[in-house]
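Our preliminary data section would be incomplete without showing what the modeling component actually yields. Below, a chain of 259 amino acids is followed by its predicted structure, encoded as tokens that our downstream tools consume directly.
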Amino acid sequence: MSKRLSSIIGWGVFVGLVLIAWSFLRTLNWDDLAWYVVSPSTESGRQNLAFLMGGVKYTLLMSITAICISIVLGLIIALPGLSPSPNVRMINRVYVELVRAVPILVLIFWVYYGLPILHDDININVFWAGVIALALSDSAFEAEIFRAGIQSIDKGQLEAADSIGLGYFGRLRYVILPQAIRRILPPLGNQLVYMLKMSSLVSVIGMEELTRRANELVVSTYRPLEIYTVLVLEYLVLILIVSAGVRWLERKLQANESV
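Predicted structure:
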């Protein structure tokens, strides 16, 4: 009875939200919209869509490069957090707390405008400034993900690795990390989604990714609603594809584990 009541309440809430949304949509000024600026049926619309889509490769390249760097850096930072020594664990804790405390937008400004001031030979472009800032910010979260994943491995696995003579790095490579990766894959996928969304902040220093290109079109066409609607759909499609890829990889790893 309780399940049936919960189902009825759930459908009632859904129907109520649909009615509210429909009532709101009916009040909108649809006649004031100018979808021709992003319509594939017009020459200008095709040009605008092509310009917007041109930012996809920069968004993906920057996000994937940053996530790869942050995973490696996060694993390195996670290892001191597993040490029995409090002083060594402090290295992990200080790094994680300091990096997580800095807003990513501030970190982007600091890397792009601050690093060249520290040394005359540092000349960093907007792409690598974005990659470094995103990777540094995400590495603190990756470190915590790796630390939790490694600590979740049963101690019996470590004892078995010791019994066959594996050293510290041998245990990590052949015993701990293969099992930990299966457990931390979902949060790693979440971080990649997070990275895709946070890459939009790099537009503030001139990176020609999706958000920057959308902003430029808004300035030239004066149609923010239409342009940003396409931008929302672009990010939605990218994130849905990434999420589907992560779920496929999870199922594949689970299938290999059960064999």
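Residues 196 and 238 are 8 Å apart (CA to CA). Residues 43-258 form a domain with the MetI-like fold fold (CATH 1.10.3720.10). Preliminary results of this kind motivate Aim 1 of the renewal.
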